[in-house]
Design brief:
The complex is a heterodimer. By secondary structure, chain A is mainly α. Chain A is built from 22 helices and four strands. Chain A has one domain: Sodium/glucose cotransporter. In chain A, strand 3 and strand 4 form a beta hairpin. A two-stranded antiparallel ribbon of chain B has the order 2-3. Chain B has helices at about 5-35, 40, 50-80, 85-95, and strands spanning about 1-5, 45, 50. Classes of the chains: A mainly alpha, B mainly alpha. Chains A and B meet through helix 4, helix 9, helix 10, helix 12 and strand 3 of A and strand 1, helix 1, strand 2, strand 3 and helix 3 of B. Chain B: This is Sodium symporter small subunit domain-containing protein. Chain B: Keywords: Membrane, Transmembrane, Transmembrane helix.
Chain lengths: ~550, ~100
């Protein structure tokens, strides 16, 4: 029970109390205006909520580490995860907002007027969210494992218990403002250490301006060590893999069921466009800082840790070796730690760096609280996507349309608990590092949903048969490529498992198009609904004519 | 409800689509375009980093943010040009979103 442990735990508990407090406060207030269906969350705040929901353990814990270890090749994650917001905001969000359904399966089921399509979309949502949540639980495991100085697997079990309780009781209502708070906690926790490191290394408080010189300095050190330069393009993966990964993350971002849901809480198509813009601005505060984080921590490791004798290593190394994510081995038995003798997992870089840079107990504790906020807010959004797919789209709409409100809520809670526990068991021995697991979820979303949502919104001739065939083929192609590449060393054009969506998405698009063309067109009513999405709310498309609502005042 | 000329409604849609095509072209150039030519572009330096690294870490992100805000502002302008009233939009869309 040292000071560090108490500080970290105290900050985590305090931030949790804040989230639960906000959830309770909002619930009480909402009962009165429960039936005013339009929420009308202002775009700036909704942007923050989207950012909190969106930035997961992969962004917070994993990304800087990935850039540090992969160098330039890690930037595919940075560009992919931000560039996707353009596809989402330009091509899907406003139209989906006007259509006015609550979940992705609900949109697909109603747009194509097909319960089969609804069922497949619900199953797809559950699979994607489930894969994604494994990454979150594995992230919570890293944080809690370090906190209690126990193996990450045990930390994961604690995380599963916390997240199950949190999501089943707290996460069902009033989640928007909780996510705003979680965004603020995580962004402050991310920026403080990177600003301090910038001051320490370059005496400039603005890391975004200063880390460029550190990057170029590292290029020199790398050349001296005889390893490939940090910023050298495509040193650790092929160019095709870089492009494939970036594509999957972008298309996946636009089609992630739990993110699309957040665009329904704004009032209009216009508000959806502004929400997307604000969301990316808030997200980029972190994404612009991650490469700085990566550069600074690699620089400190290169210059201050490598080269030391094994008998004189800083204290932080020991606690990270205990979690099983850091390995230091004297390969050439000279008693000195060399750069190539450090094996550091992507997932611990952000958590370990404040300790490496000796930033003090408060900052280290804050980072732990921020990481938990990131894992928790995304896990909350994902669990709601899973439970609404099952309880609303499958159980209520398909299996038991007479189910009472209470029974549906019970089914939703049970599905949350089951999903968390099963994902927790998988996360005990995660099948990859956090960013990699999360990238699979994006590849699957890119291949299952993006082409179908895109065609469903923009092409009135797209029909149920096409959508069903497209979703199934996209999911199968991506899923089998991931498995073949991960476990059987299969690869095409140098593309590995994380880039699987580059094959799945075009297959899905083509199959949807061809099958739609070969089968009868959708009903006139459905085609008119799609035409209607071209125009703002005030214009209505009916019987081949466009009508405009006059303001009532 | 007042019927409006189909040509007017089509003009609205075409204007929006034309803008989106321009934005997505720029999006493609700063992300995929720069990656495809990463090696030749690494020869000059911006903000202390080789250009390809700068674009991946900072440049493309900034362009993305600008494009999203430009889209929001331009779309508002087009709405105004066609006499769309946001208050009326809000009134019409309320009841179509589900609380959660």
């Amino acid at each position: 029970m040292d000071l560090q442990f108490m500080t970290s735990l105290g900050l985590i508990i305090a931030s949790f109390a804040l989230y639960i407090g906000i959830a309770i406060y909002n619930r009480a207030k909402q009962t009165s205006d429960f039936y005013v269906a339009s929420r009308g969350v202002p775009p700036v705040w909704n942007g923050m909520a989207i950012a909190g929901d969106w930035m997961s353990a992969a962004s917070f814990i994993g990304m800087a580490g990935t850039v540090m270890i992969l160098g330039y090749d890690g930037l595919a994650y940075i560009m992919g995860w931000t560039g996707g917001y353009l596809l989402l905001t330009f091509l899907l969000a406003p139209q989906l907002r006007k259509y006015g359904r609550y979940t992705v399966p609900e949109f697909i089921g109603d747009r194509f007027d097909s319960h089969t399509a609804r069922l497949i979309a619900a199953i797809g949502t559950m699979i994607i969210s489930f894969v994604y949540i494994i990454g979150q639980l594995s992230g919570a495991g890293v944080v809690l494992g370090r906190l209690f100085e126990i193996p990450s697997a045990v930390g994961t079990i604690i995380g599963v218990v916390i997240i199950t309780i949190y999501a089943t009781f707290g996460g069902m209502k009033g989640i928007t403002w909780t996510q705003v708070a979680q965004y603020l906690v995580l962004i402050v926790a991310y920026l403080i250490p990177v600003i301090f490191m910038s001051l320490q290394i370059t005496s400039n408080p603005l890391p975004w301006m200063s880390y460029g010189e550190v990057v170029s300095k590292m290029g020199e050190i790398d050349r001296d060590l005889g390893i490939s330069e940090f910023f050298a393009p495509f040193a650790s993966s092929d160019k095709t893999q870089f492009i494939a990964l970036m594509f999957c993350l972008m298309a996946g971002t636009a089609a992630l069921p739990h993110v699309i849901v957040r665009f329904y809480t704004v009032s209009t198509m216009k508000a959806a466009r502004w929400s997307g813009a604000w969301a990316l601005l808030f997200i980029c505060l972190l994404y612009l800082s991650a490469p700085a984080y990566a550069a600074f921590s690699r620089f400190i490791l290169l210059t201050q840790v490598a080269g030391r004798p094994f008998t004189d290593l800083p204290a932080w190394t020991e606690s990270w070796i205990d979690t099983g994510r850091l390995k230091l081995a004297d390969l050439n038995n000279d008693g000195i730690l060399q750069w190539n003798e450090i094996q550091i997992s992507n997932d611990i870089v952000v958590m370990a760096t404040p300790e490496i840079a000796e930033l003090g107990v408060f900052v280290i504790g804050l980072v732990a609280a921020g990481a938990m906020a990131a894992a928790l807010s995304t896990a909350g959004g994902l669990l709601i996507a899973i439970s609404s797919s099952f309880a609303h789209d499958i159980y209520y709409r398909l299996l038991n349309p007479q189910a009472s409100e209470r029974k549906r809520l019970l089914v939703a809670r049970i599905s949350i608990a089951v999903a968390t526990v099963v994902a927790g068991i998988v996360a005990l021995d995660p099948p990859g590092v956090i960013t990699q697991i999360v990238a699979w979820a994006f590849s699957l979303a890119a291949a299952t949903f993006f082409p179908v949502l895109f065609l469903g919104v923009w092409w009135k001739r797209c029909n149920a048969q096409g959508a069903i065939a497209g979703m199934i083929s996209g999911m199968l192609v991506s899923g089998s490529y991931i498995i073949a590449a991960r476990y059987f060393d299969f690869s095409l054009f140098g593309i590995i498992d994380t880039g699987a969506g580059l094959f799945g998405a075009p297959v899905c698009l083509l199959v949807t198009y061809v099958v739609s063309k070969m089968t009868p067109p959708p009903a006139q009513r459905l085609q008119e609904e799609v035409m209607d999405l071209r125009y703002p709310e005030q214009m209505t498309f009916k019987d081949g004519e466009v009508w405009m609502d006059e303001p009532s005042k | 409800m007042k019927k409006i000329d189909k040509a007017v409604a089509d003009a609205y849609f075409n204007k929006r689509v034309r803008n989106i095509v321009v934005y997505l072209t720029l999006w493609f150039i700063v992300s995929f375009g720069v990656v495809m030519f990463a090696q030749p572009l690494s020869n000059f330096t911006v903000n202390g980093m080789p250009f390809h690294y700068f674009m991946g870490a900072q440049g493309s992100l900034i362009v993305f943010i600008i494009l999203l805000f430009v889209n929001a502002i331009q779309s508002d302008k087009i709405d105004k040009e066609f006499g769309i009233d946001e208050d009326e939009n809000e009134r019409l869309s309320s009841g179509k979103s589900i609380d959660h």
